[in-house]
Amino acid sequence: MAAGTTVDHLTETYRAHYRSLLGLAALLLDDTASCEDVVQEAFIRVHSARGRVREPEKTLAYLRQTVVNLSRSALRRRILGLKLLSKPMPDMASAEEGAYDLLERDQLIKAMRGLQRRQREVLVLRYFADMTEAQVAQTLGISLGSVKAYGSRGIAALRVAMEAPA
């Protein structure tokens, strides 16, 4: 048998971390209807590349990075679509939308969406995904100093946004 993440390990990772990865996608994307698609696609890609994940304990980190990258791609496609269409299509309601409504009502989520993309990514990975600054730097492919700078500026912007009247 080839070294790498096994299907059984990936299945257990799915059971244990699906909801947290879905929450990660919900914080990165401002269209919650596509969050499940992003997370499912991340698991499919990790499953296809499981032989390259040599150490099974790194599977979750690989999944997180894949969710972040797929979220970026989804936002890029949406922006391109809006440029190409004269009138944007209305959001389609999904069965899961009710579950996300509670997240969207939270003032912190609204403030997070007002942050720069990189600030939001750093804060989500650092505090929601409970990653160390070094793990965030590795996941995003930036320096440790950049993680600290984006985090500091993001927290400062959140303080201002949270103090502003709603």
Automatic annotation (TrEMBL):
Domain RNA polymerase sigma factor 70 region 4 type stretches: 106-158
A single MF term (Gene Ontology): sigma factor activity
BP term (GO), one: DNA-templated transcription initiation
RNA polymerase sigma-70 region domain location: 14-78
InterPro entries for this protein: RNA_pol_sigma-70-like, RNA_pol_sigma-70_dom, RNA_pol_sigma-E_actinobac, RNA_pol_sigma70_r2, RNA_pol_sigma70_r4_t2, RNA_pol_sigma_r2, RNA_pol_sigma_r3/r4-like, WH-like_DNA-bd_sf
Keywords: DNA-binding, Sigma factor, Transcription, Transcription regulation
Family label: Belongs to the sigma-70 factor family. ECF subfamily.
Name the UniProt record assigns to this protein: RNA polymerase sigma factor
